[in-house]
Amino acid sequence: MADRKSNSKNNKKKRYNGNADEDFNPKFRKIRKKVCSMCANKELVLDYKNYDQMKKFVNEKGKILPRRATGACAKHQREITQAVKRARHIAILPYTQN
Ligand SMILES: [Zn+2]
């Protein structure tokens, strides 16, 4: 018991020694900056009639994926949303599944 207590105290001391990036901290995973695929590749044009392209932006339930999943910027996420809705209207994508 006594040993454990002293250990946890030591750990605390170690944690706040100012060397944050040396120790693994589960609170902050390695940050990988996402780049919007449509900003990176200007030739890539969103086409709501293209099923193979559109299906990447919805999950298995047919919901539109959030920005954190698509990696798109605000501008392109708005375009994705619009395109998915258009694709649903012309029955390329489902409104819902199961
Ligand atoms: Zn973008």
Which properties best describe this structure?
mainly alpha, 0% strand, binds zinc ion, 30s Ribosomal Protein S18, 5 helices, 98 residues, 43% helix
Briefly characterize the structure:
With about 100 residues, the protein is an all-alpha fold. Helices cover about 45% and strands about 0% of the residues.
Give structural notes.
The chain is an all-alpha fold and 98 residues long. The chain has a single domain (2-89), classed as Ribosomal protein S18 (30s Ribosomal Protein S18), CATH 4.10.640. It has helices spanning 2-15, 37-40, 51-54, 67-70, 74-89. The termini are far apart. The protein binds zinc ion (ZN).
Topology readout:
Blueprint: H1 2-15, H2 37-40, H3 51-54, H4 67-70, H5 74-89
Bound molecules: zinc ion (ZN).
The site of zinc ion (ZN) has 7 residues, from helix 2 and helix 5.
Q: Give the second-level CATH assignment, the architecture.
A: Irregular
Return the domain count.
1
Low-confidence stretches: none
Query: Could you give the distance between the termini?
Result: 53 Å
Instruction: Output mean pLDDT.
Output: 81
Radius of gyration: 22 Å
